[in-house]
Design brief:
233 residues, alpha/beta, Rossmann fold, six-stranded parallel sheet, binds NADP nicotinamide-adenine-dinucleotide phosphate
Amino acid sequence: MNLESFDESGNAIIFGSSGGIGQALVSELKKSNHFNDVIGFSRGVGFDLEREESIQKSISSIEKQNDIRLAIDATGFLHSKYQLPEKNLKNLSSKNLIYSFIVNAIGPSLIMKHLFPILPRSGKCVFVTLSARVGSIGDNHSGGWYAYRSSKAALNQLVKTAALELARTHPNGICVAIHPGTVSTSLSEPFTNKNWPTVSPEEASNNILNVIKTLKVSHNGGFFDWSGKEIPW
Ligand SMILES: NC(=O)c1ccc[n+]([C@@H]2O[C@H](COP(=O)([O-])OP(=O)(O)OC[C@H]3O[C@@H](n4cnc5c(N)ncnc54)[C@H](OP(=O)(O)O)[C@@H]3O)[C@@H](O)[C@H]2O)c1
């Protein structure tokens, strides 16, 4: 992977480094040898989106390393044994909606809150959060999955708003949302079948990094798919 558009001395961070796509991103970035260090955060090392102080603590632990050139938020939640995507309004529960919003929208916004102030102010510097095409309101043709869809739509708005603010202090900063495609991980596993093509986490991470390496300031605040194509809000 050629990541020449980034300064060579910098560091990269993956939030959600224990996930299917997160693990593949860490390994691909390490293989690229482009960054001094590739730092992974996950619940296993005390990074929990449900606790702002853990987000703050994780980010302040890397502040002195400075020169964060690339940060990817690969966290996210779709289902658990307690919560399944809703087929219809009858299935809605405030508890489940709140949980999806905490993990998919509020947590990532708190990452941006604590991370952006320590990003370098010159040279290419990118923050990516993994969103989902189903978070697009314009592209919603099939309904269902209320909590996941609406929390990813909220994430998209938070990304767009934070991108506008980032541009004021970091003229070379880029903050975008990327849909990784349907990827064979535990998140998608119950909902995929042979009629629904998936890509491996390794292929997805390559696709994501291929989009990231071509991002320019003019892309700041955008929502893109795994091939770099813009997705309607
Ligand atoms: N897979 C797909 O087909 C697909 C499609 C569209 C979009 N996406 C998006 O891509 C991203 C990555 O998905 P994935 O397929 O790699 O899912 P995954 O394998 O389930 O990984 C999810 C990651 O999120 C972390 N996470 C969940 N709750 C957390 C919390 N409270 N605090 C900190 N970390 C938390 C998990 O950590 P633990 O290991 O601690 O649980 C894990 O690292 C998600 O945003 C997802 O919505 C995936």
